[in-house]
Write a structure and sequence with these properties.
This protein has 125 residues and is mainly alpha-helical. 83% of the residues lie in helices and 0% in strands.
Length: 125
C-alpha cells in the first residue's frame, strides 16, 4: 500500500517550480530563435506560406509562445479560486484565449508547411 501512497503523493505534487520555469524559458527561447531566423535570415520573396521553412518556423514560434500563456492562465486559475473578485477570472480567460489562438494558429502554420512540401513533391514528380 505504501507504493500506491507514494505514487499518489507524486501525482499531487505535480511539476516543481524549477521545471515549470525551465519549460517556459525553453519555449520562449525557441520562439525567439524561430522569429529571429524568419526576420533576419530567410528571404522575403514570394508569398509567406509558399515557403515551407518560414511557415514551419512561424508555427514553432507560435507554439513556443502558447506555453507561457497557458502557464500564466493556470497560475491565475489557482489564485482566482480563492478570490471573490472576477477580475482574476477575466485575466485568466484572456491568457487562455491568447494561448489557444497561438496554439491553433501555430498548428495551422505547421500544417500549411507540410501541405506546401507535399504539393512541391507532387508537382515535381
Amino acid at each position: 500500500m505504501s507504493e500506491q501512497d507514494n505514487t499518489q503523493e507524486k501525482a499531487r505534487r505535480g511539476f516543481s517550480k524549477k521545471k515549470i520555469l525551465l519549460i517556459n524559458g525553453l519555449a520562449v527561447v525557441i520562439a525567439a530563435i524561430c522569429f529571429v531566423v524568419i526576420a533576419i535570415w530567410l528571404p522575403l520573396e514570394g508569398p509567406f506560406f509558399d515557403a515551407p521553412l518560414r511557415s514551419l518556423l512561424t508555427g514553432l514560434g507560435l507554439l513556443g509562445l502558447a506555453c507561457p500563456l497557458f502557464t500564466a492562465g493556470f497560475i491565475f486559475q489557482k489564485k482566482a479560486a480563492a478570490s471573490p473578485y472576477f477580475e482574476e477570472g477575466f485575466i485568466r480567460t484572456a491568457f487562455y484565449i491568447a494561448g489557444f489562438v497561438c496554439f491553433f494558429v501555430g498548428l495551422i502554420c505547421i500544417g500549411l508547411s507540410i501541405y506546401a512540401l507535399i504539393m512541391r513533391a507532387i508537382g515535381e514528380g
